[in-house]
Amino acid sequence: MVLNFDSNKNAIINAKDFVKPIKGMPQTVITFFENKLLDEFLRMFKTEIIGETGTACKRHPVYKFNYKGKDLAVVQSGVGAPYAVGNFEEVVAMGAKNILMFGSCGVLVDAKEASIIVPTAAIRDEGTSYHYARPSEEIALQPKYVNRLIKFFKNANVDYITGKTWTCDAIFRETPKKMKQRLKQGCVSVEMECAAMTAFAKFRKINFAEFFYAADSLASKEWDARILLENNKLNGEERALILAIECALTLFD
Predict the structure, then answer these.
(1) Contact between 61 and 74 (Cβ < 8 Å)
(2) Residue-wise pLDDT tens digits, 155-186
(3) Phi-psi region of 66 (alpha: psi -120 to 50; beta: other; left: phi over 0)
């Protein structure tokens, strides 16, 4: 594996080369993954489309909305480390300074369906983070915002757990052997973006925080899909959306 990290901020192609700053771009962006949750968000709030990001496969509008007197933005994220970071290179070029990401994860420990998980560090079992940070086994999330998320959930009387997360970009290669290794390292969850987004945020000097809600479980001998495969139903995601919006009002102040 080639791990010759280059700290040069300017690449041959940069997001700023073809994405321009957006006038009135909110400083804080909330992002999630599910189509059904985006539909729910658009049903709940009056929004204005102020830009877009994405790939040749799909474009993602940048939605601006006002909540309790504060302008915020919502952008649906692509799934997987390269897609998510590519999206947010463009969003940062538009003028965003703060990113709050949330989404489902697999759980490696006993955790209730749809319960909240706050990651403290991410095991770097993907490729994107190595283009944004020197090689290491794991990367810590920004402690300031981890602590603020914990305080927010405590004050909101929301049950949560904390621990490391396993960022793996090969969803069909989460093997029993690897899972045992991750448990020994202190992982409580597995997902596809956290390590890369954390490395990207530190490299670009922006603020980043993330939390998950528990979807499928890998904690027993047999995989339990739970809410993961219920594609047409909201199963706690709308609760996570409201928590994220409320949290975003003050998280980055």
Answers:
(1) no
(2) 988 889 999 999 999 989 988 899 889 999 99
(3) beta
